[in-house]
Design goal:
A hairpin with a 7-residue loop joins strand 4 and strand 5. The protein has 9 helices and 14 strands. The protein is of the alpha+beta class. The strands form 3 sheets. Strands 9, 10, 11, 12, 13 and 14 form a 6-stranded antiparallel β-sheet that branches. It has a 4-stranded antiparallel β-sheet with strand order 1-8-3-6. Bound molecules: ligand 1OR (2 copies). The site of one ligand 1OR has 21 residues, from helix 1, strand 4, strand 5 and helix 4. Belongs to the cAMP-dependent kinase regulatory chain family.
Length: 316
């Protein structure tokens, strides 16, 4: 199971480009005279705008770029049984799902055409071959009637690639250093990179306020964060100091309780990567058990710090 999961990772590091061109985002020039426009009805435009709203790869794009993308995408209807992408082929299009169910199959060294997952009415696929100049890493098969929005390799590279690649590169090494995330495969970690948003704080600034509703969690990219808790008798205690590669703010998301502590920036150059609660639920499912185990450790430490089990009943 684990070997199968690691396969695409080896692919990325082992295989050489199948295209003559090598990846260099700086080479992709902005040529504004060369815009591709597929006319769409108002209804189509509305549907497409809705479909791309949750595409993590588009997160770092501005309004204008998103408009250009919408113009450049065209609708593709599929029938049950259609193979949209075949593993091993060269990459031509990136797809956003409008409707339909799509199975993901991966041919590994051990097994032919193993079913590894599916998309249902939402999501996107086909970015890997376009980003990394690799053969298609999986086969995508339509299970039902459906509709896709396709974007050509050229448009993808011109508009989406630069920002997304930068983000994946920037966060890849950060996430590699987070032990909790070791259970994610490379593909899952890349999706996580797309979802993270950078945030900066100055010395003493509050990041999380105890008692508030949790909207996301944070990974420390640079600098130090203090975790401070006020217990039921109003006593304030510093619980921990966190540095690069550590995370916080996960507790409220796991327990669906208010924030258990406050978090403050230490020093003027604190950089964090923020993961909102929706992406957290979609992407960190495989890490949930590890996070829960770490919460048990919080409980043990809590007794040491406050000398009693204060607040512990509140924790779950
Ligand atoms: P692509 O251009 O390589 C196939 O064409 C697409 O399938 C790929 O981009 C991804 O968008 C998508 N591993 C690799 N690619 C995947 C995976 C995947 N799932 C979807 N795609 N894994 C599945 C994780 C559930 C890991 C399999 C071991
Ligand atoms: P959160 O979403 O509750 C505050 O927002 C964050 O502070 C919390 O998630 C955790 O990431 C972190 N020890 C270390 N870190 C803690 C602790 C903690 N509680 C919350 N955070 N505790 C052990 C005491 C030494 C307290 C457990 C209740």
């Amino acid at each position: 199971m684990h070997t199968a999961k690691a396969e695409p990772l080896n692919r990325f590091t082992r295989r050489k480009s199948v295209f003559a061109e090598h990846y260099d985002p700086e080479e992709d020039e902005d040529d504004d005279n060369n815009k591709v426009i597929y006319p769409k009805s108002d209804e189509q435009r509305k549907q497409l705008a809705e479909a791309v709203k949750n595409i993590l790869l588009f997160r770092s794009l501005d309004q204008e770029q998103v408009q250009e993308l919408l113009d450049a995408m065209f609708e593709k209807k599929v029938h049950g049984g259609d193979v949209v992408i075949r593993q091993g082929d060269d990459g031509d299009y990136f797809y956003v799902i409008q409707s339909g169910t799509y199975n993901i199959h991966v041919d590994t060294d051990q097994e032919n055409d193993k079913f590894v997952g599916k998309y249902e009415n939402t999501g996107s696929f086909g970015e890997l071959a376009l980003m990394y100049n690799q053969p298609r890493a999986a086969t995508i098969k339509a299970v039902s009637e459906g509709s896709l929005w396709a974007m050509s390799r050229q448009v993808f590279r011109k508009i989406v690639l630069k920002g997304a690649f930068k983000k994946r590169k920037e966060y890849e090494s950060l996430l590699e250093g987070v032990p909790m995330l070791q259970s994610l495969n490379l593909f899952e970690r890349m999706n996580l990179c797309d979802a993270l948003m950078p945030k900066s704080y100055k010395n003493g600034e509050i990041i999380i306020k105890q008692g508030e509703v949790g909207d996301g969690m944070y990974f420390v990219e640079k600098g130090t964060v203090r975790i401070v808790m006020v217990n039921e008798s109003g006593e304030e205690k510093e619980l921990s100091k966190l540095n690069k590669g550590q995370y916080f703010g996960e507790l409220a998301l796991v327990t669906h309780k208010p924030r258990a502590a406050s978090a403050y920036a230490v020093g003027d150059d604190v950089k964090l990567a923020f993961l909102d609660v929706h992406a957290f639920e979609r992407l960190l499912g495989p890490c949930m058990n590890i996070m829960k185990r770490n919460i048990n450790e919080y409980e043990e430490q809590l007794i040491e710090v406050f000398g009693s089990k204060t607040n512990i009943s509140d924790l779950r």
